[in-house]
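thread from #wetlab-drylab

HS: before we spend reagent money on co-crystallization trials with molybdenum atom, can we at least see a predicted complex? here's what I'd submit
DV: go for it
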Amino acid sequence: MPDNLRQRKEFEVRLRNEGRIPPGQSLTIQFPVLHYGAVPEFDPSTWDFHVQGEVEKSLVLSWNEFSQLPRTSLLIDIHCITGWSKPDTLWEGVSIRTLMEQGLVQPKPSARYVLQYAEYGFTANLPLEIMLAENFLLATHFNGQPITPDHGYPLRGVIGAIVGRNDLKVPYFWKGAKWLRGLEFLKDDRPGFWEQAGYHNDGDVWKEQRLR
Ligand SMILES: Nc1nc2c(c(=O)[nH]1)N[C@H]1C(S)=C(S)[C@@H](COP(=O)(O)O)O[C@H]1N2
Ligand SMILES: [Mo]
């Protein structure tokens, strides 16, 4: 359908002019699925969410407890290291700030990094500063619906660019762990799954930090 293709191209040119497509990236309107391994089963009766490490008190929440936490929405452009960028993705979920405001998580002054833990031992590391910024969320919903199994149901980290917020650091989308089960607050940085496999530790999309 040449008309659609033309509209798509025009949309990409507009986004480029608006500075929303980082170097080496191109637009997708699909939502590609990318991960290592299989999609895990979700059992709400055994699922739990752990917060441990450099926090005043470690925390375990059941799915029932987690799903009742106050949620915020987040509209971000997401950028995958494999080259696709998807604008205006709408997420809903629990921010780490909310966990702090609810008195559930209190990072120790020594906490400087956070490791996301997911099913099958997948991990992703980020500085605490980035995890507390407005463009990171522990997401339960995409476009008003629970996230689909292949995109991380029931919980995943998401990180991307908020239009107009050029003050925020924007790592590639691999820094959001699908099927998230917990967080470990750390004094010292610890490389995650893809970081150990050769991805750049910071992964800044504007600096095109893909591999190290
Ligand atoms: N648990 C887990 N989360 C993961 C990954 C993975 O392999 N396992 N891959 C990451 C990568 S490389 C990307 S680009 C995004 C892709 O998310 P999507 O499948 O929803 O597009 O998930 C990230 N989170
Ligand atoms: Mo990726």
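DV: The CA atoms of residues 44 and 64 lie 8 Å apart.
HS: ok that's useful, forwarding to the group
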